[in-house]
Design goal:
By secondary structure, the chain is α/β, with parallel strands linked by helices. It has 15 helices and twelve strands.
Length: 430
C-alpha cells in the first residue's frame, strides 16, 4: 500500500471514529503537552480546546504557565477546573494533560457557555501576563538626565515587593530635589538572573537617556544584592555610581528566607479561593521561589558575591532596623519550650533538636533589638563598608512600605538618607 493510500485509510478510520463517537454522544478528549519544566502553557490549553470544539477564541500570551504537580499543581488544577467548569475532566500524565470536554458543551445550547468560559480564561491569562513582574527600569517625571541640580536616585526593591513598595518613600525624595528612576524585577527568580538583567537594563537605560552623570542607588532588602552585583562587579570602574544606600540589606543572608515558598503558596491559595483568577495565574506562573535559596546564609550566591570587596570609588551607607516581632521575654519562652521538648521527649526530642538546630539565628532575625523581623542586625553588615546606622523600626517600616502602612506618613529613615545624600554631594563638590 502506498503512503498516499495509507494516509487516506487513516483519515477515513479517524473520520469514522469521529462520526461513531458523535452518534454515541462521546466527549472530546484534548491532550496538551507539558513544557520542559513540567508546566502547562495556558495559551496552548485555550488554543487546543477552542480548535477541538470548533470555537474561535483569541489566544492569550504564550508565557503564562501553570504547575500541575505537587501542592502548586493542585492549585493550578483547581484554577483550571474553576475556569473551565467542574464537568470538564482533567487528567495529569507524565508528559501531558488530557482534558475531557462533555458533548453538551460542544453541541447545542452549551456552546455559548463553553465559548464564554474559554474567552474568560484567555482574557484573565492576558491580564495575568500584564501583571507579572518584568525587568524594567522606569523614570518618573522628576528624572532629568545630566541635570546637576537634580541628582538621580535609582530605587531597587526587595523580595515580595515591587517599585510600588516605595510609594510613600518617593515623594520626600522628590520634594528634596532628587530625580527618581525605579527598577522592577521578578523577585522569585534566581538572583544571578536578576543581577545580570539589572546590569543590562542599567546600561541600556543610561545610554538611551544620554546619561553621563553618576547616580545614587538605594536598595531595600534583597535589592541590595542586586545593586551590589553591579557596583562591585562589571560597574566597578564605570564611574556611573557615586553612592550606594543599603536599607535592611541581606548582605550575609537570612534564615527566614526558608519561609518564602510557604508565603508564596499561601498567597496563591488565597487568590485561587478568592476567585482572583488573573492574580492566581500570575503568581502560580512565576513558579517556586528560587531566590529564597540564594538568600540563605552560606549559599553559593552569597559566598561568591561576598568574596568581592566594596567598590572604593563609591560611598557606602547601611541602614538597619532592630524592631522585631518577638520580645526578649517571648524569645526566652520559645527557647525554654524547645529545650523542654529536647530533654523530655526521647527519640522525638532528638528529632526536634535536629529540626531546630538553627533556631538561635532565626530568633535573632525575629527578636526585638536583634533584628527587624526579617534580617538580623549582624547580617546586614558588610566587611569593608561602614557599620550600619540602626533605627528602631521593622523591615517594612524602614521604607514605610504600603504592606503595613496605608497612609503616606513620615518615613522613619528619610532624615538619615537625606543627610547622607547631602554629605555625599558636598564631598564630591556637587
Amino acid at each position: 500500500m502506498t503512503n498516499l493510500s495509507v494516509g487516506m485509510a487513516q483519515a477515513l478510520v479517524g473520520l469514522g471514529l469521529m462520526l461513531l463517537g458523535a452518534g454515541q454522544g462521546a466527549e472530546r478528549r484534548v491532550e496538551v503537552a507539558l513544557n520542559d519544566a513540567g508546566s502547562l502553557a495556558v495559551s496552548e490549553v485555550v488554543s487546543a480546546l477552542a480548535e477541538a470544539t470548533g470555537q474561535t477564541v483569541k489566544p492569550p500570551p504564550a508565557d503564562v504557565t501553570l504547575p500541575v504537580r505537587g501542592l502548586p499543581g493542585a492549585l493550578g488544577r483547581s484554577l483550571l477546573a474553576d475556569c473551565l467548569g467542574d464537568e470538564v475532566e482533567i487528567a495529569i500524565g507524565p508528559k501531558s494533560v488530557v482534558f475531557v470536554v462533555p458533548e453538551h458543551l460542544v453541541e447545542g445550547d452549551g456552546r455559548a457557555l463553553w465559548k464564554e468560559r474559554l474567552d474568560r480564561l484567555s482574557a484573565r491569562t492576558e491580564e495575568a501576563a500584564s501583571r507579572q513582574q518584568r525587568h524594567i527600569m522606569r523614570a518618573r517625571e522628576s528624572y532629568r538626565p545630566n541635570d546637576p541640580d537634580r541628582p538621580t536616585i535609582c530605587l531597587v526593591h526587595g523580595v515580595n515587593s515591587s517599585s510600588g513598595g516605595f510609594v510613600h518613600f518617593i515623594p520626600p525624595l522628590e520634594e528634596a530635589g532628587y530625580g527618581i528612576v525605579v527598577y522592577d524585577y521578578p523577585f522569585n527568580q534566581k538572583l544571578d538572573d536578576s543581577c545580570a538583567q539589572f546590569q543590562a537594563d542599567w546600561l541600556a537605560f543610561r545610554k538611551q537617556a544620554g546619561e553621563t552623570r553618576p547616580w545614587t542607588i538605594l536598595a531595600h532588602s534583597m535589592g541590595a544584592l542586586v545593586a551590589r552585583s553591579y557596583v562591585e562587579g562589571a560597574g566597578r570602574n564605570a564611574g556611573d555610581v557615586d553612592s550606594l544606600i543599603l536599607i535592611a540589606p541581606v548582605n550575609q543572608g537570612a534564615h527566614i528566607a526558608r519561609l518564602q515558598p510557604v508565603l508564596q503558596m499561601i498567597s496563591g491559595m488565597r487568590a485561587v479561593q478568592g476567585k482572583r483568577t488573573a492574580q492566581a495565574l500570575a503568581e502560580l506562573s512565576e513558579g517556586g521561589s528560587q531566590s529564597a535559596e540564594d538568600l540563605l546564609p552560606g549559599s553559593p550566591f552569597l559566598r561568591r558575591i561576598n568574596r568581592t570587596p566594596p567598590n572604593e570609588a563609591v560611598a557606602y551607607h547601611i541602614l538597619a532596623g532592630d524592631r522585631g516581632v518577638l520580645s526578649e521575654d517571648g524569645r526566652k519562652q520559645v527557647e525554654a519550650q524547645v529545650e523542654t521538648v529536647h530533654r523530655n521527649a526521647g527519640v522525638f526530642g532528638s528529632l526536634t533538636r535536629l529540626a531546630t538546630g538553627e533556631l538561635g539565628p532565626v530568633l535573632d532575625e525575629l527578636t526585638d533589638g536583634a533584628g527587624d523581623g526579617c534580617v538580623a542586625l549582624a547580617r546586614t553588615r558588610l566587611p569593608g563598608a561602614p557599620e550600619p546606622v540602626v533605627l528602631h523600626a521593622n523591615h517594612a517600616e524602614l521604607i514605610r512600605a504600603p504592606l503595613l502602612f496605608a497612609d503616606p506618613g513620615p518615613v522613619v529613615s528619610m532624615p538619615q538618607i537625606l543627610e547622607w545624600m547631602k554629605a555625599d554631594r558636598a564631598r564630591d563638590g556637587r
